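We modelled the chain as a single entity of 289 amino acids. Its sequence is:
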Amino acid sequence: MSDILIGADELAALTAADERVRILDVRWRLDRPDGRPEYLDGHIPGAVYVDLDHELAQHGAPTDGRHPLPPIEVLQAAARRWGIDDGDTVVVYDDLKSLSAARAWWALTDAGVADVRILDGALRAWKASGRPLEDGAVVPAPGSVTLTGGHLPRLTIDEAAEVAATGTLIDVRAEERYRGDAEPIDPRAGHIPGAINLPTTANVDANGRFLSPAALRERFADIDADRPIGVYCGSGVTASHAFVALTLAGFAPRLYGGSWSQWSNHTDRPVAVGSQPGALAPAEKENQS
């Protein structure tokens, strides 16, 4: 497999042979952000629960977005609580096709952890391998990892607008949210003008495993690799998943962490609706007339 993904068999072999493997359970979803009850009911043996809302994000002004990445010192304190030491292999998983586990992969890789893997196929793959789960909480001895930020490319709100105009900005949300048919969470419906829509849920197969690099390259065949590429979603969580898919396909994406939740809270930013990348909403057209 790649340096990003790990299979259930490989994870089992690593844990049997090397005690310097830290497994993180990152169960989270919009309709049920606290995944701890499910974690306590059954998780991969030795896995530590990670609270995405409070340990992989910070919460401030709405204009920052719903899940801004935490400051490096906050992430480092959390990583030490998870028992991570320098040199550890870290494996992250969830029960949602790696959509939330990818956020942990991105944050820790960006923070300088050299070997972070996503369990391909998520918890379902571990169960399908016939291996057991354990219940209850795992509380490890504190780790001593030292983190440094800025190891992965990201976009500010201004840079996202520039990529939409000069390269390829990919909105990875569901089609109905991209079109602006409905917006259940953020203050305005639609997408960043110029962004195309490639939902990240299509980057995995029916079993929740990432498509092969060749299949992903075919899916992204219309993207010009010589121009800037950016990805965003609702709040920067599932954009991390698309970042992984693009990386597996051989592209060099940049993550707009503020995503639509930040953009839509800045009333001076234009909004597009419909299936076309640059179709401005009526109010935006009036503002430009």
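As a brief sanity check on the tokenised model: The longest strand covers residues 21-25. The mean pLDDT is 94.
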